[in-house]
Amino acid sequence: MKKIVLFSAVIAVPLFFWFKGSPPLPPEAAEQVTRQRDPMSDIQGKLKQDPNQAPLWFQLGHGYLNQQEFDAALTSFDYAIRLSPEPVASHYAAKATARYYLNNQVLDDEVSALLNKALKIEPLNLTALSLIASDHFISFRYQQAIDTWTKMLDSQDRDLDRASIIHSLNLAKQMQNNQ
Fold first, then answer.
1. Which residues have a Cβ under 8 Å from the Cβ of 114 and sit 6 or more positions away?
2. ∠ at Cα 174 (170, 175), nearest 5°?
3. Nearest by Cα to 131 from 139, 41, 42
4. Which residues are CB-contacts of 141 (< 8 A; sequence separation ≥ 6)?
5. Opening angle at CA 146, ends 145 and 148, nearest 5
6. How confident is the model over 169-178, as pLDDT tens digits?
7. Is the separation of the CB atoms in 77 and 61 below 8 Å?
8. Res. 27 pLDDT band, cuts 50 70 90
9. Whole-angstrom distance, CA of residue 41 vs CA of residue 35
10. Do 149 and 168 touch, CB atoms closer than 8 A?
11. Which pTM was predicted?
């Protein structure tokens, strides 16, 4: 009898928490989620007033990327490129990123062409190189990922999250050694 009660408790407790779900957000966290959406609303409001602002379309595209709304991000980056007198590498790299994720993380010809445009303008564009390195990594091309992350570290860019890149680089080396 004790075994049945113990077994029931072992099964019932995890099931209780699983069915219970996650608790509601505290008011402060719910307010923070609302504040995070406000910048998107602000940008959209400004674009309604004047839709010819390339920098705002670019910001909006990044907001959509963060929300994983890749179709909307792609459209926003298209507008940013079309409205810019001279598109910069970041425009093409951002559009490539949206297209890549919209395409289920497949680096197709269109994504490659966008990345090549970005790297032609700015050979050490971190967004483009990060996407390339990540694609190499998830495709088990560890040496190419290592080479790309090393290139990023050699760039001496101050905005680079060096600790994260070094961690990724070491992980790729470890995976390569395990092959």
1. 92, 93, 95, 96, 99
2. 115
3. 139
4. none
5. 65
6. 999 999 999 9
7. yes
8. low
9. 10
10. yes
11. 0.77
